[in-house]
Design brief:
This protein is mainly α. The chain is 78% helix and 0% strand. It is built from four helices and no strands. Helix 1 packs across helix 4 and helix 2 packs across helix 4. The protein is elongated. The C terminus is likely disordered.
C-alpha cells in the first residue's frame, strides 16, 4: 500500500512539473506570436495554439471557410517560424 501511495505522489509531482512546463512553453509561444506583423495571423495562432479553439470556432470568429482558414494558418505558421528565429528561444534549456 505504501508503494502505491509513493507512486501516486511521484506521478502527481510529475504532473505538476509538466503543467509548469506547459505554462512556460505557452508563454514563449505567446511572446513569439506577438512578434508577427500580421494581426490576422496572430489571431489565428493565438486561438489555435494558446486558447486551443477548434477550427470551426476560429472559422466563425474570423469568417473564413475551412479551406481558406487552412491556407491562412499555413502562412501564419511561416510567419511564426521567422518570428521564432528572431525570438531566439534557447531550446536546450527546456530539454
Amino acid at each position: 500500500m505504501a508503494d502505491a501511495i509513493n507512486k501516486a505522489l511521484e506521478i502527481e509531482e510529475e504532473i505538476q512539473l509538466l503543467e509548469i512546463e506547459l505554462v512556460e512553453t505557452k508563454e514563449q509561444i505567446y511572446q513569439v506570436i506577438q512578434l508577427i506583423d500580421i494581426t490576422e495571423h496572430q489571431l489565428i495562432l493565438l486561438e489555435r495554439c494558446i486558447n486551443e479553439k477548434s477550427w470551426n470556432s476560429i472559422d466563425r470568429t474570423i469568417g473564413y471557410a475551412n479551406s481558406r482558414m487552412y491556407e491562412k494558418h499555413h502562412h501564419a505558421l511561416m510567419d511564426f517560424s521567422v518570428a521564432f528565429e528572431k525570438f531566439g528561444v534557447n531550446r536546450s534549456s527546456s530539454e
